[in-house]
Amino acid sequence: MPVVGRLGPARGDVGPHQERRPTTISPGFARFISAVAASRGGNENRREPLSPAEARSRARRAMTTRQEPAVNLIDRRGCERERRFVELPDGLSLAYVEEGEGRPIVLLHGVLTTLEDMTIPLGSLLASGRRVIAFDRPGFGRSTTRRFADAGLWRQAESLHAALDLLGLGKPVIVGHSFGASVALAMAMSRPGRLGGVVALAPLVQPEARLEHLLFSPRGAPFAPEGLGLLAGATSDRVLFPLLWRAMYLPQSIPKAVLADFPFTLAGRPEAAVRVAEDSAAAMPDLIRLNALAPFCHVPVRIVGGDRDLVVLNGVHGRWLAALLPQGEFIDLPGLGHMIHHYAARRILEVIDELIADAG
């Protein structure tokens, strides 16, 4: 009687005169494999159970097939879009992409991402009948930055307003995500007559201690050597960044389109971590100012958030700010996490069109 699952000798144990013995599968195990295959439907054009011989053959292949090693997210280059650049008077160079014609819509990404995070789910969808411009925020993607000079909401709002002026964009609607949504709100409050409205997706609004402070603050310190970021980029970031990227999408998973096309390698450069550190340090006073100015901002604002967001508690952040804004409205998306633009793109398109219609 054959032994169930008996394996031949290991590769290193086979001598020059020894014969390698094949794996033996019992008839009972073969019938089990056959039954499982039949219960799952097997081949759509074949309904009868597998024969014991075929089941044994498939079992051997399954036991001996080697899995390809998974590629670290940070090594995925994706499909980086060809960028244009707008040169600002202060020396900054902001990278952007543009498509479509019509009412201008500006897209601003969040933390540890690039403009592709917005264009993958929203770019083509919005470009039908609209002019869509997506920026790499200062210090991310291909946009430049200056240490200790360009951090925080209000400084980035100034830079982006200057870019809009140079590009000749009249009263665009700004669609921002996460920290990019906070920057969009600062743009509305600093120059309210310049914008046609803001759609803020899961914005950070309340000043609070956050995980970013703990993880990245040492790199943004004035005394931090440049080599610290390079060392982290070659070691700990290879573990940390993929964990953070996957956590952003919870409770959903990263969409296949993002895995295929998003330039994780570009988004995970050491310079991006330094930018997160500096923005995190500036966030506390910047957000206090944001809340203080909210009651006086008459720009139409729609704040959209998922009720299962693990990065920003939208009931505390977005809903609160919407109540302060004279023309603010909070829209809840049940069951969704932080990356709502990847799972509710058409709903966000509806929100944009509704805001434009209401604003006249």
Distance between the termini: 83 Å
Tell me the helix content. Answer: 40-55%
Q: How many helix segments?
A: 13
- Output the CATH topology of the largest domain: Rossmann fold
Strand order of the largest sheet: 1-2-4-3-5-6-7-8
CATH architecture of the largest domain: 3-Layer(aba) Sandwich
* Category from helices, strands and their pairing: alpha/beta
Low-confidence stretches: 1-25, 36-47
Strand content: 5-15%
- Outline: globular
Q: Cα-atom Rg, whole angstroms?
A: 26 Å
Find the count of extended strands (DSSP E, 2+ residues): 8
Q: What is the class of the largest domain in the CATH system?
A: Alpha Beta
Mean of pLDDT: 84
Task: Tell me about this structure.
There is one protein chain. An eight-stranded mixed sheet has the order 1-2-4-3-5-6-7-8, sandwiched between helices. The chain is globular and about 75 Å long. It is built from 13 helices and eight strands. The longest helix is centred in the last third of the chain and has 24 residues, at 270-293. Helices cover 42% and strands 12% of the residues. The protein has 360 residues and is of the alpha/beta class. α5 (179-190) links the parallel β5 and β6 (197-201). The model is unreliable at 1-25 and 36-47 (pLDDT under 50). The chain has two domains: 21-64, no CATH class; 75-359, Rossmann fold (3-Layer(aba) Sandwich). α1 packs across α2 (52-64), α4 (153-167) packs across α5 and α7 (226-234) packs across α11 (270-293). The chain has helices at residues 27-39, 52-64, 116-127, 153-167, 179-190, 211-220, 226-234, 237-249, 256-261, 264-267, 270-293, 318-324, 345-359, and strands at residues 84-87, 93-99, 103-108, 130-135, 173-177, 197-201, 301-306, 328-333.
